[in-house]
């Protein structure tokens, strides 16, 4: 075994970081060089140093603090990775939580009054029945105003099938508070009975009780 | 004698011995190996696998420092180790400790009851 393969073998069995391995290799090389300058032959040096595996093991044993330090580092690394993964997951969950709408009992709302929401929702449907777009426009958010037109709403109604007949009554109505992306909405689902069919409305208001959405089916 | 016990017993004194040798002047690894063998006999004939980890520790703790020196005509540079002022302080404290350690251990071992 020549010097190069001997040192390679030692490195292989060393149980430490790469930088530390390089340092040991350089020290051993310098040692071998110094020894041969003193007249020792490579064979003599190798016999004195012992087998590469034994030499590496001696290093490993004596760098006890170093090798446990390495293990500490490794477990710290694992801990760090776990921490990062947990943090990323937490952010993702928080983001998902932020984006996903969550609904709460309207009765518990600090922003909306259950009775007002129910009344306003019915009022919207009644205004739609009367085709009173002027007043509907007034009650709408800026965004909603752009679609709250006779043309648009008639078109929407037509898609649910022509003539609904006269409005009769509201059959059921339920309201919830929805929180999405930090914004609060009051959402009411109410069914209106007409002569020829019933229509279920989903009506939402923003925090200022402005009409912010209508869905009919 | 169990070689493990012998190794264990000797382990603790190498740091003091290496610091002592370095306190006499800067030395490179091979020189330290040879000197330990010459001055301490076979009992302190350590191998690289024991000496270098000690030197690394001394360096990490700021008790020794090292420099690579490339001399003309030599293929490989040599790494010289020297003792730092902190190392000298540590050495004198360790020597003090060694004296009382030695005295107390001998005291117990030679005690007749």
Description:
The complex is a heterodimer of chains A (217) and B (113). By secondary structure, chain A is of the alpha+beta class. Chain A has 2 domains: 3-95, no CATH class; 103-216, Roll (Nuclear Transport Factor 2, Chain: A), CATH 3.10.450.590. Chain A has helices at 3-13, 18-37, 42-49, 52-62, 64-99, 114-129, 133-139, 142-145, 150-159, and strands at residues 102-105, 167-180, 183-194, 198-205, 211-216. In chain A, strands 1-2-3-4-5 form a 5-stranded antiparallel sheet. In chain A, α1 (3-13) crosses α4 (52-62). The termini of chain A are far apart. The model of chain A is unreliable at 65-70 (pLDDT under 50). Chain B has a single domain (3-110), classed as Winged helix-like DNA-binding domain superfamily/Winged helix DNA-binding domain (Arc Repressor Mutant, subunit A), CATH 1.10.10.10. In chain B, 64% of the residues lie in helices and 12% in strands. Chain B contains 4 helices and 3 strands; from the N terminus they run αβααββα. Chain B has helices at 3-23, 29-40, 48-60, 85-110; strands at 27-28, 64-69, 78-83. In chain B, strands 1-3-2 form a 3-stranded antiparallel sheet. In chain B, β2 and β3 (78-83) form a beta hairpin. In chain B, α1 packs across α3 and α1 (3-23) packs antiparallel against α4. The A-B interface holds A 23-24, 26-31, 33-35, 37-38, 48-50, 54-59, 61-63, 65-66 and B 28-31, 33, 47-50, 52-54, 56-57, 74-79.
Derived structural class of chain A: alpha+beta
Distance between the termini of chain A: 86 Å
Helical residue percent of chain B? 55-70%
CATH topology of the largest domain in chain A: Nuclear Transport Factor 2, Chain: A
Helix % of chain A is 55-70%
Strand order of the largest sheet of chain A: 1-2-3-4-5
- Low-confidence runs of at least 5 consecutive residues of chain B: none
The whole-number mean of residue pLDDT values of chain B reads: 89
Q: Say what the CATH topology of chain B is.
A: Arc Repressor Mutant, subunit A
Total number of beta strands of chain A = 5
Instruction: Give the number of domains of chain B.
Output: 1
Report the count of strand segments of chain B.
3
Query: How much is the radius of gyration of chain A in Å?
Result: 39 Å
> Uncertain segments of chain A of ≥5 residues (pLDDT<50)?
65-70
Radius of gyration of chain B: 16 Å
Main β-sheet of chain B: number of strands, strand sense, barrel status?
A: 3 strands, antiparallel
| Quaternary status | heterodimer
Label the CATH architecture of chain B: Orthogonal Bundle
What structural category do the secondary elements of chain B indicate? alpha+beta
**CATH architect. name of the largest domain in chain A:** Roll
């Amino acid at each position: 075994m020549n010097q190069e393969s001997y040192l390679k073998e030692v490195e292989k069995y060393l149980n430490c970081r790469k930088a530390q391995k390089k340092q040991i290799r350089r020290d051993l090389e310098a040692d071998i060089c110094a020894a041969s300058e003193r007249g020792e032959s490579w064979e003599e040096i190798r016999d004195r140093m012992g087998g590469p595996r034994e030499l590496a093991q001696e290093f490993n044993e004596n760098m006890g603090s170093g090798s446990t330090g390495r293990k500490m580092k490794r477990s710290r690394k694992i801990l760090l990775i776990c921490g990062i993964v947990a943090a990323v997951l937490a952010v993702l969950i928080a983001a998902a939580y932020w984006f996903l709408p969550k609904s709460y009992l309207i009765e518990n709302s600090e922003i909306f009054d259950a009775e007002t929401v129910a009344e306003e929702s019915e009022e919207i449907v009644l205004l739609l029945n009367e085709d009173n777009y002027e007043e509907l426009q007034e009650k709408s958010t800026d965004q909603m105003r752009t679609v709250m037109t006779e043309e648009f709403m008639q078109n929407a109604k037509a898609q649910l099938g022509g003539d609904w007949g006269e409005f009769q009554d509201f059959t059921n109505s339920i309201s919830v508070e929805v929180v999405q992306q930090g914004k609060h909405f009051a959402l009411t689902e109410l069914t209106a009975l007409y002569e020829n069919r019933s229509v279920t409305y989903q009506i939402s208001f923003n925090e200022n009780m402005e009409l912010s959405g209508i869905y009919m089916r | 004698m169990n070689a493990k016990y012998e190794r264990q017993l000797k382990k603790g004194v190498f740091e003091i011995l290496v610091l002592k040798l370095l306190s006499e002047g800067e030395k490179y690894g091979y020189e330290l190996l040879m000197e330990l063998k010459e001055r301490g006999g076979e009992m302190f004939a350590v191998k690289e696998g024991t000496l270098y980890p000690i030197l690394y520790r001394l360096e990490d703790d700021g008790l020794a420092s090292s420099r690579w020196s490339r001399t003309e005509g030599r293929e490989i540079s040599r790494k010289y180790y020297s003792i730092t002022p902190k190392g000298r302080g540590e050495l004198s404290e360790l020597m003090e400790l060694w004296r009382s350690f030695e005295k107390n251990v001998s005291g117990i071992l030679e005690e007749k009851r």
